[in-house]
Design brief:
The structure holds two protein chains of two kinds. Chain A is α/β, with parallel strands linked by helices. Helix content of chain A is 40%, strand content 22%. Chain A has a single domain, classed as 3-Layer(aba) Sandwich (Rossmann fold). In chain A, helix 4 packs across helix 5. Chain B folds into two domains: 228 residues, Rossmann fold; 43 residues, no CATH class. Helices cover 40% and strands 22% of the residues of chain B. The radius of gyration of chain B is 21 Å and the shape is globular. Classes of the chains: A alpha/beta, B alpha/beta. Chains A and B meet through helix 5, helix 6, helix 10 and helix 11 of A and helix 5, helix 6, helix 10 and helix 11 of B. The structure holds adenosine-5'-triphosphate (2 copies) and magnesium ion (2 copies). One adenosine-5'-triphosphate (ATP) sits at the interface of chains A and B. One magnesium ion binds next to helix 1 of chain A.
């Protein structure tokens, strides 16, 4: 049995008494060592879920449990030690006056010894390829460089839960692949829960499971392969399927029989090859 | 308005120990009414480049010409405000351009500042809100009490409200959901066609560049690395890989298809539908020839 690490139990949330509910009766579980992608249209409640996970917000109804601890005033500091989060806009999380200070900040709070800290600053900045910017002021970085530093700062604290809220949206495609590979390696090695909130369908494909949000409710929960067979329904709620799933769908419309739903180039080519050699 | 960069270099914090050259000897010409995509790796100078287009930055060396406005180290145009009413810029992070109390006031700020009448502003907002996919109910909300994608839509609405002749977009679809990305790009393209808007799009999406742009400029480390039509630029896989870029996914697929089947499908900016038909015919052709 896999160990449950994050639990949402019938969670409802609104930003004020007069405001509309933005999450309604949301329940799900995320395991330790699992990679879950959360997708959904703009305003569907994804970032709100992220903020509830580390106690930046509390739900009006329902309960959130992280590693056995209910997220409330009593446990919020312990919860935040375990949950590392990269915000949608990195400017909202920079605290240091230099890149190096910024990465150090989270570690200082957690009492990491100085020597260890220096070592880790070097490591994480190298992992995101920002080692040449130690003394740069964060607001003087380019959009993508800011995102790289924000990711490094969170990696430095070795969290048990890593939440990336559209944390790679400003990276070039190669950079995005590299960074996600780095993060995936760390996730596998340290057996942490990884939660990626993203509109990038390529990134969704890599997750083990997908939670689809629609208008504040959980719309579906399944593997990427299952989710991406629902092209028309996804489009109705503002989403879409990756290029390869789209192409496979069009091929089917043209009487090319695709038996296994492909998710990447290799799989689709394999399907076509099998078909071709049978001809 | 035509846009010309003549040997432009830009140095951040010049004459300080932190000086950093972000653009170097950059020259290009964009004829009025063109749709240009600017592409390049993180930190290659794209945002620095576009901030020259409305005089937010002034070249350290060289000259930028936009229509009849000249911007160089010695002279900024006196009528910068007029330039900014004609060149609208959507910044990379929407929060950087939101500031007013309510969404409605935020969108109205630009046109009001440029002397557009209340009545005209109201009718513009009426038109723009659905076009950017915003819910009318959000108009009285603070722009900071919105989701990331909603903020992006407000920032775009604010720029469209000034009805610029040149539209400059710095990764305008980052943070939008898949439908929003498609609808927003289609809307920019429609405006470009209907109003002959010169459009400059900074993007990491090779797909959008192929789909919408007449002309592509590839940046690398502050210099122009390549330029040309999408068909010319995007078939150069090795050259693009060298500067951290990939060819669009369609071309990646066509390439691996060729490797596997030894059959070439030429790239002609075809849609997914057209590609599926071509593959089907290729497979059928292979069948009948055997
Ligand atoms: N501070 C706030 N005050 C009031 N309402 C808010 C606030 N922040 C967000 N909202 C509203 O809550 C809803 C959910 O927002 P949330 O940020 O969770 O969406 P999201 O799924 O992350 O969207 P996006 O993809 O655009 O980032 C939206 O309708 C939004 O307008
Ligand atoms: N305000 C600033 N002060 C000093 N250097 C800066 C400043 N803004 C950007 N830079 C540097 O100039 C270079 C070009 O930055 P720019 O923002 O133009 O890149 P970009 O191509 O837009 O990148 P991205 O795709 O990441 O947004 C980068 O190396 C960056 O660190
Ligand atoms: Mg969000
Ligand atoms: Mg930029």
């Amino acid at each position: 049995m896999r160990e449950k690490f994050i639990e949402f139990r019938n969670v409802s949330f609104r930003y004020g008494d007069e405001q509309p509910w933005v999450l309604e009766n949301v329940s799900f579980e995320i395991y330790k060592d699992e990679w879950v992608a959360i997708i959904g249209h703009n305003g569907s409640g994804k970032s709100t879920i992220a903020k509830l996970m580390n106690g930046l917000l509390y739900p009006q109804e329902g309960e959130i449990i992280i590693n056995g601890l209910p997220v409330n005033d009593q446990h919020v500091w312990e919860v935040r030690r375990q949950v590392g989060m990269v915000f949608q806009n990195p400017d909202n999380q920079f605290v240091g006056t230099t890149v190096q200070d910024d990465v150090a900040f989270g570690m200082e709070n957690r009492g990491v010894p100085r020597e260890e800290m220096t070592k880790r600053i070097g490591e994480v900045l190298k992992a995101v390829r920002m080692e040449d910017y130690l003394l740069t002021e964060p607001h003087r970085l380019s959009g993508g460089q800011k995102q790289r530093v924000a990711i490094a700062s969170v990696l430095a604290i070795n969290p048990n839960v890593l939440i990336l809220d559209e944390a790679t949206a400003m990276l070039d495609p190669r950079g995005r692949k590299e960074i996600m590979q780095t993060v995936a390696d760390i996730q596998a090695k340290n057996e942490i829960s990884l939660i990626t909130i993203t509109h990038d369908l390529q990134e969704v494909v890599q997750a083990e499971r997908v939670i689809v949000m629609n208008a504040g409710k959980v719309w579906d929960e399944a593997t990427p392969r299952e989710i991406f067979t629902k092209k028309d329904e996804l489009r109705e709620i503002g989403l879409d399927v990756p290029f390869i799933a789209l192409l496979a769908d069009e091929l089917k419309h043209n009487d090319v029989s695709i038996i296994n739903e492909p998710l990447n180039h290799g799989e689709l080519l394999e399907e076509l090859w099998t078909l071709h050699s049978k001809m | 308005m035509d846009i010309t960069f003549k040997d432009v270099s830009y140095i951040y914090q010049a004459n300080s120990p932190f000086s950093h050259k972000a653009l170097e000897d950059l020259s290009f010409h964009i004829p009025s009414g063109t749709f240009v995509a600017v592409i390049g790796h993180t930190g290659s100078g794209k945002s620095t480049l576009i901030q020259h287009l409305n005089g937010l930055l002034t070249p350290t060396i060289g000259e930028v010409q936009i229509g009849d406005y000249f911007i160089n180290a010695d002279k900024k145009p006196e009528n910068l405000k007029e330039l900014r009413s004609r060149v609208g810029v959507v910044f990379q992070y929407p929060e950087h351009q939101l500031f007013d109390e309510t969404v409605a006031k935020d969108i109205a700020f630009g046109p009001k500042n440029f002397g557009v009448s209340e009545q005209e502003i109201e009718s513009r907002i009426e038109e723009i809100i659905p076009a950017v996919g915003l819910d009318k109910q959000l108009l009285e909300r603070s722009p900071f009490d919105l989701s990331g994608g909603q903020m992006r839509r407000v920032a775009i609405a604010g720029v469209l409200a000034i009805k610029p002749e040149v539209l400059v977009l710095d990764e305008p679809t980052a943070g939008l959901d898949p439908r929003g990305q498609r609808e927003m790009m289609d809307m920019f393209y429609r405006l470009h066609k209907e109003r002959k808007l010169t459009t400059i799009l900074v993007t990491h999406s090779m797909e959008d560049a192929v789909r919408y742009a007449d002309h592509v400029i590839i940046m690398n480390k502050g210099t122009k690395y390549m330029e040309g039509t999408p068909e010319e630029v995007f078939i150069q896989r090795d050259a693009l890989n060298k500067v951290q870029l990939d060819v669009p996914e369609v071309i990646q697929f066509i390439n691996s298809f060729e490797e596997r089947f030894h059959i070439k499908i030429p790239f002609k900016r075809q849609s997914v539908q057209e590609l599926a038909i071509q593959i089907q015919q290729v497979l059928k052709g292979a069948e009948s020839s055997e």
